[in-house]
Structure formats: structure tokens, C-alpha cells
Trehalose operon repressor
Amino acid sequence: MQNKYLVIYRQIAEKIQDGEFPPGEKLPSEHELMEAFHASRETIRKALNQLAQNGFIQKVQGKGSIVLDAAKFDFPVSGLVSFKELASSLGNRHVTYVEKLELIEPDKNVQKQLQALPGSKVWKVYRVREIDGEKIIFDKDYLKQMYIDNLTEKICASSIYEYIENELQMKISFAKKEIIVEEPTEEDREYMDLDGYSNVVVVKNYVYFDDASLFQYTESRHRPDKFKFVDFARRTHT
Amino acid sequence: MQNKYLVIYRQIAEKIQDGEFPPGEKLPSEHELMEAFHASRETIRKALNQLAQNGFIQKVQGKGSIVLDAAKFDFPVSGLVSFKELASSLGNRHVTYVEKLELIEPDKNVQKQLQALPGSKVWKVYRVREIDGEKIIFDKDYLKQMYIDNLTEKICASSIYEYIENELQMKISFAKKEIIVEEPTEEDREYMDLDGYSNVVVVKNYVYFDDASLFQYTESRHRPDKFKFVDFARRTHT
DNA sequence: GAGTGGTCTAGACCACTAT
DNA sequence: TAGTGGTCTAGACCACTCA
């Protein structure tokens, strides 16, 4: 059996998506939900807080929980953007080319980015993403070898995240992202269809494990015309 | 008196920033914190969850709460980016020029973005941000008049957010952000020091009130060389 | 004043990590 | 086995909204 509050979360989320709780309307009160789900108030509140954090509802003191129009938001590129999500939202025909897959001794820059120990090795993966016939994303990944022994081209072509979480059973916990704009490098011009564009958007991703250890550094380099980043931020009452 | 869990949150956060709880070390256990702060476990946990969400600690079941290296992260441009935060992180000498401040009947595009009723009026504010002598940000704000009657140049020159939250006592609750890259418009070239740059980074901000009503649409247009966006995302266990 | 969500408590049991 | 954090409960009181 699952966590009770997650079960409740999913059931309410489903009803919102199915239109059973329409946007603009109020959810049943916490007291009513307690009876409906046979749960204590704190458990109901845990589920509602998750719903609020993920943009399903908005809680208003003294009033109730208002259902938001989820369709209005193309949903949270929540935390980690994987290429699969991106591709499905951008278009249909997408291909990944694995251009490089090497086990290297990192240079100073990568060593610093990954906070890698001297002498430790690092996987270097270059992937080019083609969507609707155009090569518009160039991903440079660096992964610490200590966490991942065997990386094959097949794994890289689908999703490294999925492999790590499903096969290796390790939990990715949080990520820091930086977005900047740069002039294209020679590598960018070599791997991407840059045409006349004089800028690339660089998304730097630092990915951490459960125990706060850094394990991956990624530079995702995008052609500017196809780049879009969506962030759905809720304010925390600090 | 304040909320107990927020007081505890702040006290622990302070100790982390002062180095009293150094990075890599473990925080006292929840049981110990209960005694130290004379609080119940749930209250301690609420404070710890806030700390985790804001990147101060990482909780690991069975082990404890590990203090993260906060200095490693230039901190969360959390939710709403206001120019004041931005400027202080970018440089010292910054000026805001209010180039336009009008009450208009919105055109179709703005009307759609704001989901404004036909016939309702909208404040249109153009502001140019100069940092270290260069005009690098051009902010176009559209605010529904129904929420804000009197907007002066003085308010615009400092912070509209602060005015709304402090003077009008309204709570801004959440925001949706979109980042894309465009070619500069004539307006961009007119108001910014764009030199030879052939792109601008456009940050579109949709700002909502407490009750989920949309009230502001902002386009913040940045010269690409000075643009940087940092996102600190934690994964939620959905 | 009735009904809503927000905070806080005390205590129970479970899941995981150490040793 | 002892100690940690994760979930759940039942009940109390407070702050806010609305008729």
C-alpha cells in the first residue's frame, strides 16, 4: 500500500483533470474530505498542500480551496527538464544522435564543476537532438563514474535519468539550473543547424543525489528560436 | 508574536549562515530540536521542511538533516524576480527610468494576456534599467486598473511589488514565468543600449493574487550578455 | 456566529541507517 | 538494537470570510 496522503492527492488530482471538480469552483472543505477519505485532518492537509504546490488548487484562508484552471498552464517543467518531455511538447519527429561517449579524465573546468576528486574519471556524453529535421539542441553531459559503471550508447539515446532511477535504483533529489546566453562555439556550429543565429541559449544543470552529493553536470545548448523555458513558481511565505 | 515554526526556521537558517551549523555536518535530531525550541515534533518538522525547500538542508531518512553548502548556490530567484534583487546581485550603480506611465484601453494582445474584460482599463508602464552606466533591461508592465487606482512615477521608480504588498496590503501569491529569445524590436533599440546584439532575452511574467485572479503581465527584456537566470528546484515526490 | 483554513500539541507506529 | 526521519491520528485553539 502507498502513502495515504499521496493516494488522496492522486484521487483529487484525477477528479480535477476529469472535470469533476471544475476550475473556479471550490473543493469540498477539509472536514468533508476527512469523512470522504476516512483520514485525519493533517493527512488531508498534506494532500491539499501537494495539490497547491503543483498548481491544481489555490488555498484561501476562511474561504476554501479553489480549483485552478490547470489547462491554462503548460505544466511545470518541474525541476528537471528531460529531453523526452521537451520533445513531446515541441513536435513529433525527434531523433537523438549520440555523438560522443567516452570515459575521460576531466580537465580542470569540468573537475571544478563536478567537484570531482583528482584522478577520478568522468563520463563525457555529447548528444544532438533533432526535432522536425533540424538539429536544434546540443547536450554535453558529464557524469561521475563512481556512480555509474556502465554507460552504453543505447542508454544515452533514450534517457539517462530513467536508467539511473529505474535500473540503478538511485534517487535524484534536486537540481540547480542556470540559464545564460552565449555566442556559439565551433562545437555548436559543428553539431547544430545554427544557420545565421549569433547566439545560443545555454542551460546549465547541476544534478544531485539524495544524499546531497553532486553527480552530474550538463550543458544543454539550444538554438535561440526554439528555446522556451516555463517556470511555475509558488511563493513560499518566508 | 510570529508563527512558531517560522521563528524556528529563521533561527536555524541564521545559524547555518553564520557557520554555527557547518556544511556537511548534521543538524541536531528532531528530538533534540524539540527540546531546544520547546516545540512539538510536527512544528520542528515544518521548520525543517522549509529549510529543505529553500536549500539549506537535505533530509535523509534514518540519518538526519545534512547542512548544505548554501554559498555554493547564488540563491533562489525564488518565484518572482524583482529588479531590486537583480540589481544588487549585478552591480552597484543602478538607475531606473520611467519612460511611460499611462492608463490605456488595452489592445487585443494585452487584453488576451491579462484576460481583461472588454472596456476595462490597464496601466501601461515602460521602465528602463541602467546598471553601471548601461541600459540593459527594458520592462514593459501591464497592470489591471481594477486592482490599483493610483500609480505614480515615484512608485514605479522603486518597486511596484512593494507598493502593492505594503501599501495596498494585497498578497501576491504565485507567478508563471516564460523565458524565450527574440530579435530586438524597434522599441528595444530605442530604449536599450543594444550595440550590435541581435537578440534579446524576454522574460514574460504572469502575476496572480491570492485568490487566483490574474492582475499583471510583464515583459522584461534583457540584453543577452547580461542575462542570467538561476533556478533552484527541488523534486517533489509525486 | 457558523464555517473555513492555519497552527500547534502529544502520542503512536513505521521505514530506514547505523553498529 | 538504538536512533533517525516519515506517516498518521485526535483534539485544541486561532485567524479569516461571509451572510
Q: What stands out?
A: Residues 29-31, 45, 48, 59-65 of chain B lie near DNA strand D (CB under 10 Å from a C1'). The first helix of chain B runs from residue 4 to 17. Residues 74-82 of chain B have pLDDT under 50 and may be disordered.
